[in-house]
Amino acid sequence: GIQGMINKIEANVEEVKKKRIAILSAPQADEKVKQELEDLKEDTKKTANTVCAKLEEIEQNIEAGDQLNKSSVDLRIRKIQHSTLSQTFVEVMSKYRKITENVLKLEFNGNYNVDDLST
Questions:
Q1: 10 has pLDDT over 60
Q2: Torsional sign, CA 7, 9, 10, 12
Q3: Within 13 Å of residue 8, how many CA atoms lie on the same side as its CB?
C-alpha cells in the first residue's frame, strides 16, 4: 500500500545519500554509480508521484464522505490514516530535498565535505 511505497522512497533516499557520498568522495566519478543514482532518482520520482495520486484519491473519498454527512468511525479512521500518511510522506520527501540541496551546495562551493550530507 501507500505506507510500503513511502518506505521504499525512504530506502531510496538513504541509497541516494550513499551514492552521492561515493560520487563526491571519488577522485573520478564511476559511471556505474552515476547511473545507479539516476535510476534511484527516477524510481523515487515515479513512486512519489504514485503516492501523491493515491493520497489525493483518499482525500477525495474523505471529502465525498463528509459531503454525505457521514460521521462514521470508518470515515474518522480514514481521515487519521490520510493525515498520518501525508505527514510521513512530507517528512521523507523533505529529507530527500535536503540531501539534494546539500549536494548542490557542496558542488557549488567545491567543498566536498561529505559529513554535510549526514543531515
A1: yes
A2: positive
A3: 17
